[in-house]
Amino acid sequence: MEAVEQGAEVRYTRADGLADALRGADALFVYDFLSTAVPGAWHAADRLRWLHIASAGVDPVLFDGLVRSEVALTNSRGVFDDSIAEYVLGVVLSFAKDFARSLDLQRESRWQHRETERIAGKRVLVVGTGPIGRSTARLLRAAGLDVSGAGRRARADDPDFGTVHDSAELTEYLPAFDYVVAVAPLTARTKDMFGARAFAAMKPTARFVNVGRGELVVTGDLVSALRSGDIAGAALDVFDTEPLPVDHPLWTMENVLLSPHMSGDVVGWRDTLVEVFAENFQRWREGEPLRNLVDKGLGYVPSAG
C-alpha cells in the first residue's frame, strides 16, 4: 500500500469502524472480501466515488444502495484464474485415481490393489465462461479432457470451450458430462442453479465440482443426490454457510472432497490483491479508465460469455 499512501490519505479500519472511516472518503478498498459490513455503513459514504473488492465475486457488496448509486465498482478479476484451474485439475485427478482412498489405506497400513480411471476423453462442462472458467477449460483440455462451457449465450465457435451451451437450459445437456464444474458468479440468475433437478439430470457416475459460490448450490439437494447415488461424488471449495458447520453431513461422506474456500489462494495471493488495487488506484488518480469495472446490473465484469 506504500504507493497508495504516497498519493492519498489512507484510513485502515476493521468492520466496526467502517462508518467512521467512510465519512469524507473518495474510495473504499474492501480487503476482507467476505465482510458484510459495507451495507450497514453505507449511510456514511457521503462522497464515495469508487469501491474495489479484493475478490472476483462481488456479491458481498452488491446491495441495493450501491447498485442504485453512481459509485464505480471494480473487482480483482484475473488474480485467481490459473490457481483455481489447477485446483480443478487436481480434484479431477484425485477422483479418477482414487487418491483419497489410497491415503486412507496408507494410514491403515493396508495393501489393497484397485483399478482407477483415465481422465483422457472424459467430458467436462464448465459452467461460467469468465476468465476463471476459460483458464480451467484450457488446462483441462491440455490434460486430454473434452471440455464444453455453459454461459449466457450459446455458440459453437468459442476459442476456449468450443461449444458453449445456454446456462438457462442446463438440465437438457447435463446428462452428457462426466464432470460438471461450477465457476459462475453469484447472481439472481445463478443462485440455486444446482438443485435436485440438475443433480437428477446428471450421470450417476458424474462428479460435481464447485469453485464458484456456495449459493449456486442447494446444499440439501446435493447431500441427497450423493446419498442416493444420483451422482458419484463432489469436490467443494465454497459453501452457502462458511465455515461449514462441524456437524454437517458433508464432512463424513466418503465420496466428497472438501477444502475451506482456498482453491485460488496460492503463496503470495494477498500481496497480488493489493497490487491490483494499487495499480487501479493510479489509473483512477490519473483519470484513466478503471480495470475490472463491474456491471452492477449483471453482477460481474462483462465478457463474451
TrEMBL record:
MF annotations from Gene Ontology: NAD binding; oxidoreductase activity, acting on the CH-OH group of donors, NAD or NADP as acceptor
Keyword set includes NAD: yes
InterPro entries: D-isomer_2_OHA_DH_cat_dom, D-isomer_DH_CS, D-isomer_DH_NAD-bd, NAD(P)-bd_dom_sf
Start and end residues of each D-isomer specific 2-hydroxyacid dehydrogenase catalytic domain: 15-294
Domain spans labelled D-isomer specific 2-hydroxyacid dehydrogenase NAD-binding: 90-263
Keywords from the UniProt entry: NAD, Oxidoreductase
Signal peptide location: none
Family: Belongs to the D-isomer specific 2-hydroxyacid dehydrogenase family.
Protein name (database record): Hydroxyacid dehydrogenase
